[in-house]
Amino acid sequence: MRYAIYVPSFGASLGDPSVLVSLGVAAEEAGWDGFFLWDHVVVPGEPLVADVWVTLGAVAARTSSIRLGPLVTSLGRRRPWKVALEASTLQRLSGGRLVLGVGAGVPQDFEPFGERASRARALSEGVELVRALLSGAEVEHRGEVFEVSGVRFAPVEVPIWVGGVWPREAPFRSAEHAAGVVPATFGPDGLVVLSPADAARLKADFVSSGGPANGDVVIWGGAALPAEVVEYEAAGVTWMLTDGGHGSLDDLRAFIAAGPPSGA
Question: Of 244, 196, 240, 245, nearest to 221 (Cα)?
Fold first, then answer.
């Protein structure tokens, strides 16, 4: 099992990119395996938003071992060729530590700008296109959403995790092009922690949709990470994400400094 800090990139404190960079550095120093950020353009009621790619570039430059990436970036909003260029650049800058989380996105990042993208279709077609652009081959693509003609990027290996709301099918439309899955499951009060049994069903859905049997299964572990590590590992979970229920920035810093669960 690997453990990662996963925090939003907006608000009075976490909308400050220098704060986010300091948290990423602290997470590496404390022995966490990963540092991942939400990716939004518009957050209702929170005008201070940090661009994730700029921020992660600074995190990569200040760290040397921790895995990092956006969870998740919308391929309908960012455009696959821009995401591929950003991912290629950040992968080279970080020395191979980037994991690219992709998803369909949320209406708040589209509708204020007059966009009405088919978000699910943009995800499934976009993942295939990003993979093609990162392969180093010349890309000719004519799809329902995107067109690319005669473009060749330098080859760069970037693992892709597909995200979405489970048990809806959208995250799994792109399973065959993914190295892992990072679902979101919601209850009445927001994100909920999957049980080991649910995690096993999630992995089965992912694999039956074309995902690799040895792929990553990445789940939200809540504010206090669950203790049933063996059960989750048996279910196929490879990563758990947490912000420690950060409360204040000082609380989050203290949680990060305490390090991942004992024995991790």
Answer: 240
